[in-house]
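Deliverable D4.2, example record:
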Amino acid sequence: MGISKTDFMRGMQCRRMLWLDRNRPEKRVIPPEIQEKLDKGNEFGDGAMGMFGEYVEVTALKEDGRLDYSRMIKDTKAYIESGESVICEAAFSYCGHYCAVDILRKADRGYEIYEVKNSPELTEQHLKDVGFQRYVVTRCGVRVLRCFVVLPGEDGEDYRIVNVSAPAKEYSEWVRDNVFELNKIKMQKQEVFVETGLQCSQPYECWYYEYCHSEENKTKE
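Output generated by the structure prediction step:
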């Protein structure tokens, strides 16, 4: 089992967060306002699927309702081989490390990655997010020509598309330097301890804030 895009982003914020996600998920507390924000982000992403016209979507579920990653990866490969122009939720796995691209669009001599974010402005976290996708997709043998982040539009436009190709390429190298270490941390049996600090709330407030700040779970000096 490798690292997903979500694993990577959370693990780079805090190694303990990553470990808890896998080993103590019952300790997480997601505030209602955060869940509402996540839901709105999913709605915005669903709406953006058709921004380039017709598309195919590879999202697949198992009988228990969980995502069927194996089928999604297989279907993505088949759609690429058949020459589909726009593939939504295109799934890739390299050494077990997994990502799903919101929109994978075919271009001359390669593909473009579009990451959809329901955010008023582009952030560094968005660039890191796309960097992870570029890392996995390119190592699966797909030639990535350009990378974009899709944001809500301005002045009556539905969407604003920002070219992030250069920083995404830089961050893909940063991903390479950290992804295997994070996988070891995720899989280790002993709980990871990290002293509480800025990473508890930046760039996002941790869902394990109460757990880690309780006296019995604070890092020993």
